[in-house]
User: Fold this.
Amino acid sequence: MVKENMTAKKTRYISVRNGGDETYVENISVTGRMQDYLPAAKLRLREIQRVMPLGKWSITIEQQWKEGGVMHFQMLNVVTGKLQESVL
Assistant:
């Protein structure tokens, strides 16, 4: 009997929000740590704020994966560096 792999492929992306509404999502590599992408995401946020200063912009680096029938989510706030996790 072959044991089935119970871990689904992890996805990682940046999520750009304006006033809490998601306006843009971009897939990024799952290699390395989420924190490795902080400098690039902070630069992206500064660029967005510079060209559209009236918005209430935020960016998170997010990843999700399914393991054993359970979905795992991690969200890293680019401004504060706070990591939020949830399991559904």
